[in-house]
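Hi D.,

Good news: the full-assembly prediction came through. Inputs first.
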Amino acid sequence: MNWTCEQTEARLSDYLDGVLEPAEVLAFDRHVSGCERCTPLVASVSHALDRLHDLEQLEPSPRLVNSILTTTIGPQSWRNAKRWLRNLQSPRFVYSAVSVAATLFLILSASGFSWKKPKLADLAPANIYRKADSQAHLIYARGTKFVSDLRVVYEIQSRLRQDNEIPTTEEETIPKSSPNKKPNSTNGTNPASPRQQNRANGIERHLEILAAALPVLTGSMAERSIR
Amino acid sequence: MEQDAQLVQQCLQGDGSAWEELVRRHTRRIFNICYRFTGNRTEAEDLSQDVFLRVYRTLASYRSAHGGFATWMTSVTRNLLIDHYRRTKRDRVTDSLDDKMPVVENKESVGRRPDEQALLGELSNQVQAALTRLSPELREAVILRDLQQLEYGEIQRVLEVPEGTVKSRINRGRIELARILQQMGVRPA
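Then the structure:
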């Protein structure tokens, strides 16, 4: 295979990179060894390539990475804040935060904290304790009152039941009232007996007491007792 | 390479730590390309910063099917380096009129900090000086092939020229570099 100086120059990199065919390598070597022009060329390029490969990678200054990050995604403090906010999105943190918030809400509500007009002083431990104490006493008093009201109601109910269960010996003397007739009223034809009138007055009095004691139950209880 | 693609996806979803990881992985390589092309540490750092800024802004346009992320970044770097070269061409012409055929030591002693001189001394300043005297087309081809160890196919994608042109530029770049080194008095033993 004939080899020329032009070929040597054109295929020099292929030769140095070792991608020439064996026959081409043979021809290349044979030509270069006998050519005054190509011998120094190959030597100098081979030398330059060695020097290039000797160059080491340089280390950039440590602040380069930081300045790149600052230019692209903001300063260090902002990056830390964003990372912290990202961590807040984890389900575990959300559940914990919700539980803590619910607990605080319950404690503050129980201590009588005003959500409509919040005051910083209300959050002082001494104030929380004092309000929680008074709130507990209030709840206890309300409970006691509720139980006592219930007792009154049951007492009235039991008395009414007793009154209704008294056997009437003078049944024939008492005129029959219609089913819809109220206990303390007449049907307009026969006047009420004194006993009936007394009982009606007693029931009315009981209902008034009950209404005063337990306004919520007034309607339903009065209705039941009338029936 | 797959890890880079994964990090890019995380970046696009707003994960700042993924971007930090990408920056840390590629800063050294990008800085070295810029430094070898410009021969100036400050310029190289500024250009590296510009490269990452552009990559960050155009990250959504990266497609892994078109090649690795590193190749894409190298392509962005190369485009910025060429832009920079054209922008500063007038300044260099003025400089070259003042010092048409500079001796390496003299050239480096002008306008460089002492730490840069020490650095260049350690890292074969003659070769670096010879590199910066190559034409930009030959310089980028030699840097990518002989300093970054890229394959011909990757260089072809970065430079967006046919493979034959890539081979030709690398070959001419090496021969030209050897000639410049000889002119500078750096000869084979």
